[in-house]
Specification:
The complex is a heterodimer of chains A (401) and B (120). Chain A has 401 residues and is α/β, with parallel strands linked by helices. Chain A has twelve helices and 17 strands. Chain A starts with a strand and ends in a 6-residue tail after the last helix.
Chain lengths: 401, 120
Amino acid sequence: MVREVGRVEAWPEVLSAFPRGLAALLETAAAGFPGPLEEIRLRQGRPLMLVGAGRDLAVTPAGRLSSDLAQAYRPTAEDLGRTVQLLAQNSLYAWEDEIRQGFLTLPGGHRAGLVGRAVLERGEVRTLKQVGGVSLRLARQVRGAAGVLLERLARAFPGPRPPSLLLFSPPQAGKTTVLRDLVRQVSEGSPTLGWRGLKVGLVDERSELAASFGGVPQLDVGPRTDVLDACPKAQGLMMLIRSMSPDLVATDEIGRPEDSLALQEALGAGVVVAATAHGGSLEDLARRPALRQLLGLGAFQAAVLLGRSRGPGTVEAVWDLRKGAERIDLGEAAGQPPGAGSQRPDRPAHGGELSPAAGRTGGSTLRPAVAGDRDRLRIHPVARGLAPGGSRAQRSGGAAV
Amino acid sequence: MPAALRQVAAGLSGPAARLFDQAAAALESGRGITGGEGWTRALEAYYPASALRPEDAAALRLLGSSLGASDRQEQVKHLNLCRERLAHLEGQAQDHAGRYGRVWGYGGFLTGLLVVLVLF
């Protein structure tokens, strides 16, 4: 069963990250947004926008939604300045490392991307000043988001533990949401899948997976999960392996050379690895040196492509990497929605100039895609040493027949 | 910021502790209130009953506009500037023993705030 939690309860804390006037506009507008809200976009002097369900809509000065950008409220420099202060909980000095990387994470795991004028020191970014744009991505916990995936993996990889796997997708396709639920379910254990609860070590560099506050995860990552919060991935993986004897380690958005080395250490220690990476196909992954190395070493037994064909978190394809990237049949049942969830079901839609029903995608966005019979990659990226510039069809995970 | 203000308050006694506590409370209770607004609210509530001169209050008000709104390096710069300003005012108040004590006290608690911000 899929159940989306987190955003209804989290809405007040999201609004508290905005100055009062702006928060009032957003509250009114979001209530009428036609579908699950994913992002709030502020750009100085340009339209204030809400993003979700595959579309973006402008927010008018009256808090209404409009597809006419000319009607939009345009945030001022003061709006942006105050928003950044509030996002940092009035402690910008305590967020230097995060700001240097261009983001802040709010309690609840919501992530604010920042752009502005970079201040350099010895050629390195010291901080951002005059922030001119903020993109607040709303975190969500979707219980059951990894259910169908785990079921298929348990069938394809029989044994007491899940396989080491790499979840990949273009941005905003639900990687973090699926990984969080996978960690929770592996930590809890599943008699149906034949897995007892495992000790999980989670390196949450950007505080998005567990949304820890004061050292305690605010999102459910399972009873046997130990979280290293705001810790660099490579360092954190090594620390967890040495100190917490995990059965599985998990982390988000790998891709740097040091990540590759740390994951190799984990695998060498007999620890299962679950990680995510940006990429639209196995070929995309193989173009990145660190990931190419990991794939070449057989670090992962399974690769999972997520997408948005049925909304964020759709399992588009799964490959068995033990067999030279053989595509796993997701089965007929995979086309069935595992459940339904929606954002803020308790809130009546109002105030928008558009019908709240317009554009609604319909409940849970975490449905698996129907895949064909055992498809095989025409070109195995590791074995063939794929050169950059493959065809669009080759780059698309779904077209790799 | 609220935690830093509380920490400074805990290390003080008397009226100065109340100023920091009030600023922390303003930030904790209010939705959408910046550090500077919280500080200013607390200062305005505290100032009329205090021995602060208008110029003392102005120096502290000016500090509010930058409190929590920049990186560590900038925060230290603003706090040091405020300390220097208060030291200057202290010199002016040498002939008023009562006020001298108060002004000296503010210079002291700003050192406390600076240390907390640097260590946080």
